[in-house]
Amino acid sequence: MRDGSPIYRQIIRQIEYAILSGRLKSGDKLPTIRSLAVELKANPNTIAKAYGELEIRGILVTQVGSGTYISDKKPDPKDEGQDGKIRELLVRFVRDMRDLGVEKRELAALVSAYKEDDK
Fold first, then answer.
1. Is residue 33 exposed (0-12), middle (13-18) or buried (19+ Cβ within 10 Å)?
2. What is the C-alpha to C-alpha distance for residues 9 and 13, in angstroms, rounded to an integer?
3. Is 66 helix (H, G, I), strand (E, B) or coil?
4. Cα separation of 45 and 26, whole Å?
């Protein structure tokens, strides 16, 4: 799976291709982060980053205690090149906030309330 781009991007492309080609369908369960990391000989954080970005885009849905599933939303083949850096930062931000116990629905209020001069 080596093509010069970051491994998490390669994973994202592979999952998107599998959805677009019909190999993965809405409701299909994906491997756990840990099992896919072992299979690909990759760091679990890399897999989590790929799953996280796909979840932000609505392609995957994670159900706590149950697993990660393909959603009803189809990937847009153009998405990969558009606003990639913004998406990458957003994925990291949402994951960091989740790690701190902040729920996704609280994020908009936090961002709106943020002032540039806050420390």
1. buried
2. 6
3. coil
4. 25
- Helices 7-20 + 44-56 axis angle, to 10: 50
β partners of residue 69: 29, 61
Global confidence as pTM = 0.65
Cβ-contact 102, 108 below 8 angstroms: no
50-57, long-range: CB < 8 A, 24+ apart: 50/8, 50/9, 50/11, 50/12, 50/15, 52/91, 52/94, 52/95, 53/8, 53/12, 53/87, 53/88, 53/91, 54/12, 54/15, 54/16, 56/87, 56/90, 56/91, 56/94, 57/87
pLDDT band at 87 (very low <50, low <70, confident <90, very high): low
Which pLDDT tens digit goes with each residue over 12-25?
989 998 998 899 99
3-state class of 60 per DSSP?
Answer: strand
The residue behind tokens 């209020």 is 109
How many of the other CB atoms lie within 10 Å of CB of 44?
14
